[in-house]
């Protein structure tokens, strides 16, 4: 998933990545949200996007 790759980049989160996340979040189904949340929590447990992906 492209959002995951944008999130785990070594570079700071770019404005475009942030916009992409907020644009795509509403159209992700529950399985996709769960995958993104679990993947981010494993790789970057303090990533700011996690607060938008509740369990």
Brief account:
The chain has 55 residues and is mostly helical. 55% of the residues lie in helices and 0% in strands.
Polypeptide structure, described:
This protein is an all-alpha fold. It has three helices and no strands. The protein has helices at 2-7, 15-24, 30-43. The longest helix is centred in the middle third of the chain and has 14 residues, at 30-43. The protein is globular. It starts with a helix and ends in a 12-residue tail after the last helix. The mean pLDDT is 94.
Low-pLDDT segments, ≥5 res: none
Shape, please? globular
Beta strands, count:
0
Main pleated-sheet profile: none
Rounded Rg: 10 Å
Arithmetic mean pLDDT: 94
What is the topological layout?
Layout: H1 2-7, H2 15-24, H3 30-43
What are its keywords?
mainly alpha, 0% strand, globular
């Amino acid at each position: 998933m492209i959002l995951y790759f944008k999130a785990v980049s070594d570079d700071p989160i770019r404005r475009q990545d942030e916009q992409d996340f907020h644009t795509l979040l509403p159209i992700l189904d529950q399985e996709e949200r769960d995958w993104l949340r679990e993947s981010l929590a494993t790789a970057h447990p303090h990533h700011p996007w996690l607060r938008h992906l509740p369990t």
